[in-house]
Please model this.
Amino acid sequence: MTEQWLCIHLHRLSLDVVVRGLESSEAVAVCASRGSSRWIHDRADGLARQGIKPQMALASAYALAPGMRVYPRQLMAEASALEQVAGWCYGISSRVSLFPPDMVLAEVGASLSLLGPLERIAQAVRQGLKRLGYRSRLAAAPSAAAARLMARAGRYGRITRLQPLPRVLSTAPIAAAEIPARDLESLSRMGLTTLQELLDLPRPGLQRRFDQQLLDYLDQVLGLQPEPLRIYQPDQAFHSTLELPCEVENQEALLFPIQRLLTELCDFLVARDLIMDRFHIVLGHSHSEHSVIPMGLLEPGRNEQRILELVRERLHHFQLAAPVRELSLKAQHFFPCQARCQDLFETRSRGMDQLPRLVERLCSRLGDTSVFTLSEIEDHRPEKAWQPDILKQRQASGQSSSKSGSPMASRPLWILDQPTTLPSCPTLVSGPERIESGWWDGEDVCRDYYVAECRPGEHLWVYRDRREDRWYLQGIFS
Amino acid sequence: MALVSNGRPGPLDELLRQRGISRGYSPTAGAGLPCEHPDLEPHLPRGWPVGELTEVLAPYPGIGELSLLAPALTALTRRQQWVALVAPPQTPHASGLRQLGFSLEQTLVVRTSDAGDALWATEQVMRSGACGAVLCWPGQLSDRQLRRLQLAAEQGRCSGVIFRHLKARHVRSPAALRLTLEPNLEPTPEPDPEPISSGSETRSRRSLRATIIKRRGGRPGSAFTILTCPPA
Model:
């Protein structure tokens, strides 16, 4: 099976990242700066028509379009956007690799039989990324390096073979190849401009004059040598941040960016086949501690509309402590998604299927040791005569320890964790039952147990410690 | 019983056929959890309500409230259905439960650290439908929270039992069945003085005064006596 590498070039990433937090993208430009000089890095299409080009100085741009809104480039946001796109691509491919600042590579040859011809996958990618808010251009080639080369050269399309080299690659400029700048300069001084000219040179000559790295790269482009790629590993937790372009004081205005983040979260869940039952909305403020809004769902799910309604409801009643500068969504507690199977006969035994899910849900919020059944232990001392059977462990091991108890006198229903002292001898109803045991582990007891009546109708299990000659309450009958 | 005149159904018949009109206390309508307690059955012929909340109000714990429910609950556990105790005030004792007749394999205990978690856990357990009966000790509950629990019990088709203090009897509640328990201070008719004898299994019968103060589909009743056997 041949490989097919899809190179996704997010060619307007810096602009898309800034526009994500805004309501409209009209007259928006992104500027980069070094020292005191500032220039336009990217601009909206409307501004392009007015004559503003990338690399133009900011002052000249303002002269051409005085009403434009300029935002600084957000490098951190671009990096996390790239990760987010890689996470999305995990839904179409199992081998995804990041090439910052703006490329993601995905191996789709293995997914062709499941997801359809390459055109369909490419269409799905374009639409999926558009939904997330990113524009993209795609190039496909049998080798990863060739796909990247095509994207860098601006030749988006598909090539199916590398031998003989197709025209689209052979006429690609060398500047688009991933060759170190020093070597690039030497090559241009030698008069070489296209890739084909470089490949026509004899190998031994190239080997003498340049590093082995250059020759390896050429072999990788031609598909003769596999390229070691760092494969992207999807995150186990979800954390996405959106920096708002200006401070927001009205909670209604937060809904739009939150919806964007929720779309990402739901895509994250769908790609991993998970559902969640709680997440956190973190609001960052400029001059104070960030505030956290915990959100919980009654039943785990990933329905975007339903969760958005809940968020809307919650925000309505929430008081903003300070103007919000940054918004992020965090989620860590997930469950595998189990489709509901409809039973033809609606019998009561469907409850048996619900128990593991219920235990899972309870344990994830309360802790594994909070849900248990009881079992008896062979010990005469009442406080040691029982143990909790943690349900999760029982499910894992598949067994349960159950002992049929030996006959004994009445035992109370409730037992206190620690026996409490009684001030005086209570009214005794029946007894005594002497328990002397436990010499082997140092906690030996020497007690006479009675049933006492304190308030009318209330039966308590008390004992007199024979060594201390004091009365203790240990249990309550019910 | 139809008021028929001249062979045609009369106006009363039409009215009675409409829904929403209850004809006094119809003891056979609907199914519930059978009480299996000889003193309770005449007063609760349908048994404990299923899919609805029951409130048991007592002045202090340990008066015998769980022994009342035990026959019904143990029957549930023997039928391989689960009974859940959510956030009990003390730890349930395994031997005590077994002596009451519970099958320990089918009794679930959920322990929480604060009231909010306890309420959430109760709602989750009731809604899931995994347990046939859910017992909880919620403490202070607002009307809104009670309604949520009622909805949860309906959705999960389980019998939800809430134990509250007796002083809540004057507060309105959406529970389907409300039962108060008080110790019976009148002397019991059976004169059976029990000396403190060592190792004897004889028991004296104690009695409780129970009153059904609210019942869905029926009228509240007057106080009746329940005789229970206290432990030896």
About this structure: Residues 5-27+68-221 of chain A form a domain with the Alpha-Beta Plaits fold (CATH 3.30.70.270). The first strand of chain A starts at residue 5 and ends at 9.
